[in-house]
Specification:
Alpha-Beta Plaits, 4 strands, globular, alpha+beta
């Protein structure tokens, strides 16, 4: 089995959508192998979003992602688990997300789009190493 990393962002936790999001992944047949509710600090967010650190939106991203708890998850599934999760999440901009996707059904704005999912197997390995190093 292969693994990927997902974060239910602060807006998902604040809106009480974590159970629904986890349920969708489980109904798809993906297995939740680790989860933690945690408020992230600037240091760990700097590691996670290192590729964005020089971009103008980075300070706002860190402020959003650290404003309240997130639910971090490791999901296990078939070889294409990363792409399956990303399809289920929908387009980054909720206005462009198809109905039936997490962002299409629940998203309201681009800057608060409910979930993060690894974009490749390599990213999943790196992100799981940051947040679940003992997995």
């Amino acid at each position: 089995m292969n693994r990927t990393f997902v974060i239910c962002k602060p807006d998902a936790v604040e809106r009480g959508l974590v159970g629904e999001i986890i349920s969708r992944f489980e109904q798809k047949g993906l297995k939740l192998v680790a989860a933690e509710l945690r408020t992230l600090d600037a240091e760990i967010l700097g590691q996670h979003y290192a590729e964005h650190s020089e971009k103008p939106f980075f300070p706002d991203l860190v402020a959003f992602m650290s404003r309240s708890p997130v639910m971090m998850m490791a999901l296990e599934g078939p070889e294409d688990v990363v792409s399956q999760v990303r399809l289920m999440m929908g387009a980054t901009n909720p206005a462009e997300s198809a109905p039936g996707t997490i962002r299409g059904d629940f998203g309201t704005e681009m800057t608060e789009n409910l979930v993060h999912g690894s974009d490749s197997a390599e990213s999943a390995d790196r992100e799981l190493g940051i947040f679940f190093p003992n997995l």
